[in-house]
Amino acid sequence: MIAFRRGFAAVLLLVVALAACVRNDTIYRTQGKVFGTKVEVSIYGESEARAAELSARVLKEFDRLHHKFHAWQPSALTALNDSIARGESYQGDAEMVDMLKAAASLAARSDNLFNPAIGHLIRLWGFQSSEITPHGPSAAEVKRWVDANPRMSDLHFDGTRISSSNRAVMLDLGGYAKGYALDRAAQILRAEGVKAALINVGGNMLAIGQPGDRPWKVGIQDPRGEGAIATVELHDNEAIGTSGDYQRYFTQNGKRRAHIIDPRTGESVDLMASVTIIVSGGNDAGTRSDGQSKPMFVIGPAHWRAMAQRLGLNEVMVIDTKGKIEMTDAMQARLGAPQGQFKPAGS
Q1: This prediction's pTM
Q2: DSSP structural state of residue 21
Q3: Of 211, 224, 327, 334, which has the fewest CB atoms closer than 10 Å, so is most exposed?
Q4: Alpha carbons 119 and 50: distance in angstroms, whole number
Q5: To the nearest 10°, the Cα dihedral for 321, 324, 328, 334?
Q6: Contact yes or no for 95/61 (Cβ under 8 A)
Q7: What does the pLDDT look like over 238-292, one tens digit per residue?
Q8: Whole-angstrom Cα distance, residue 28 to residue 46?
């Protein structure tokens, strides 16, 4: 039996009820679809016209990034990948180089469990597609690309010129670009003096200020249900990111095949249902919330605490495929009232 499911968000935005009804105390929300997922910009403290104008600018920026870093439709990223496959260098730009260098740094710190260089494996499993269909690559095909050992450290930079010492590198920034988009949106809105906003890209969220006298409140998706499993308040310049097995996956012969691939084995990860982290500070909180959740997911239920410590993550919640929930003490302290079947680990 084959089953498919595609969800909107790893994190659900909860509507904040505000008592005030004056114009600038209203939250204006603008939705769109970019990066193959839904996006939403919520702006507080601006007129409706001003909020619409700023949201349109953010969505335009999302569209630019979507087309620049698309992993399989013609883009600057696919042009780079084509050059790598031919053994040639590619003339990038400062934005691309900075993104790749930051991704390479995270790859090194995560012992390459975060590895955007394994695009060939992602494609082999059928996840470089807008429509997910069952794929069953042979063990030999998987082994070929695992043995080729593509890594971010294979990339070399000469100013903005990019090359690779390993032609097996195929870059796929699907686990990174959405977080970068959050940071770009925040830069646009802060530069325009917006005092409060919540940016949502496929469930990864970043907060600016707060709407009125209360922080933004979001919910953490139940990976096996439709609602939120817990709620958490987000403060200024905090970002929340979730990696899960329930948005892009296929089920075949009773086995769930999710889009997150373990670079060590070339197989889809099947021990974790979701990993949620909260990060804060700097101008890259969104990028970190997206990228750092990936190695936490790959390393699995037995070793996530060690990886969290290695990455300097204090607020982490993991749910394995058996439904067991664990979290750091700092995350437990952040959670709002439990919902549904939620039970903290050890309860």
Answers
A1: 0.88
A2: -
A3: 224
A4: 40
A5: 100
A6: no
A7: 999 998 876 654 466 666 666 788 999 988 888 899 999 999 999 999 999 999 9
A8: 8
- Calpha distance 65→54 (Å, rounded): 17
- The β-bridge relationship of strands 249-252 and 255-258 is antiparallel
How far apart (Å, rounded) are the C-alpha atoms in residues 316 and 331? Answer: 6
Domain that holds residue 100: 1-347
What's the CA gap between 171 and 86, in Å, rounded? 14
Question: pLDDT tens-digit profile of 283-320?
Answer: 999 999 999 999 999 999 999 999 999 999 999 999 99
Decide: 219 and 332 in contact? Cβ < 8 Å: no
The Cα–Cα gap between 136 and 142 comes to: 10
CATH number of 333's domain = 3.10.520.10
Residue with structure tokens 């790598």? 84
Residue 332 burial (10 A CB sphere; 0-12, 13-18, 19+): middle
Instruction: Quote the number of domains for the chain.
Output: 1
Distance (Å, whole) CA 199 – CA 191: 15
- Comparing CA positions, the residue from 234, 190, 239 lying closest to residue 214 is 234
**Tokens at 38, concatenated:** 């839904």
Burial classification of residue 36, based on how many CB atoms lie within 10 Å of its CB (0-12 exposed, 13-18 middle, 19 or more buried)? middle
**What strands lie across the sheet with 315-320, from one edge to the other?**
27-34, 37-44, 196-201, 204-208, 238-244, 272-280, 315-320, 325-327
The single-letter code of the amino acid at 273 is: A
Instruction: Quote the CA–CA distance of 91 and 97 in Å, as a whole number.
Output: 10
- The β-bridge partners of 31 are 40
Torsion of CA 16, 344, 316, 71, to 10 degrees: -80
Position of tokens 């730009």? 93
